[in-house]
Amino acid sequence: MEKNTRQIVAQLISTGGATLPELADGLGVSIGTVTKEIAALQQEGLVHDSGKIDTASGRKPRRYTLNPEAGCYASVDLNDKYVSLGLMDMSGKMIRQRTNVAYKLENTSKALRTLCDIVLEYKRRIPQYTDNIRRFCVNIPGRINMKTGYSQTNFNFTDRPLTEIFSESFGFPACICNDTMAMAYAEYLTACEKDQQNVIFINVNWGLGSGLILGGRPYFGKSGYSGEFGHIHIYENEILCRCGKKGCLETEVSGQALRRKLTERIRRGESSILSTRVLESEIPLSLEEITDAVRREDMLCIDAIEDIGAQLGIQVASLINIFNPDLVVIGGELAMTGDYLLQPLKTTVNKHVLNHVREDTVIRLSRLGDDAGLIGGCLMARSIDFGIW
User: Fold this and answer.
1) Percentages helix, strand, coil for the chain, rounded to the nearest 5?
2) Closest Cα partner for 164 from 176, 153, 156?
């Protein structure tokens, strides 16, 4: 695909639709050049004329969008307990989802085969779409190199790129993406204001990660491993992190840290509606149980969540001072506790961020919730398909 064509598609992806003058202005080329490119894209069936739009005066310009029927993109979003699968049309509308399919994420060949089986079962459920799927994205926690197709954290036991294995198994071109980066990309494209081009997404889940959108483009870093926010060395606590090092931010600010702290406090005699559950069962608490207790206004769980928010706020303040972003989005499972996490985070940020920088940055919860990763995976697949970056 030629450079101008890619840029037109990129602009239609980022705006949802544009007129010829808007496209020409965005690309810095003549309207004649854009008209020729749009005509070629229409001939291919990729671009759709969505009709004239109202203007204050003069001729009504026509608005062009990606053709919803030109193809679709699929994604599978992994976490420690289940996977979700989804399908999106060319215009960016989700058209089919299957969520919370039981799955145990392990770094084993068995877990990889099980994942492929789940995707193939999903494929059998959507025969009316399979001929139109252009690319499939797999969102995986940990360090992902999208360019080479390798995962360094999960499924890192094979010499072949994961993208080759998935492509062969699924029967579609496949790509892989870090789960938090997919969430960040979804939030940026579907839930941000047009002038918010620099976005930091914080994923507070079992672990702690971040995704960066800088200048309207995902920032992957040299090897694709950017965003390992949870593995900044902060504490001298001698707690071993999942990465194998000690003192990482994730050891005190994450879902796993929340469960550990809450369990310790209950065993020391503090009261909670989860006390009986902790003291009489060997099965560890799940994050769902803790967030449910917060919604039921359990004071110990609320206090523990607020402590996580305050500590996270100190480190978010550092990111804001460094990047001066338009927007910081807090997502992930612990974000489901809403203001119990967000308000102490904001209070701490206000204490530590430089005044003028603080005024420029909006901090809010994710607007996509549990669907962020699934949506982001499909959007990633679409952008990779067109070689947008």
Assistant:
1) 45, 20, 30
2) 176
Judge if 234 and 173 occupy the same domain: no
Q: How many domains does the chain have?
A: 3
CATH code assigned at 48: 1.10.10.10
If phi > 0 it is left, if psi is from -120 to 50 it is alpha, else beta; for residue 114 that is alpha
Residues 6+ apart with CB under 8 A from 294: 301, 302, 305, 337, 340
Using one digit for the tens of pLDDT, what is the confidence trace for 343-378?
Answer: 999 999 999 999 888 889 999 999 999 999 999 999
Give CA–CA dist 96/93, Å, rounded.
Answer: 9
In angstroms, the CA 69 to CA 132 distance is 9
| Cβ–Cβ under 8 Å, residues 320 and 357 | yes
Please tell me the number of Cα atoms within 13 Å of 106 on its side-chain side.
Answer: 8
Predicted structure pTM score? 0.94
- Last residue in a domain, options 20, 39, 69: 69
- Largest distance between two CA atoms of the chain: 75
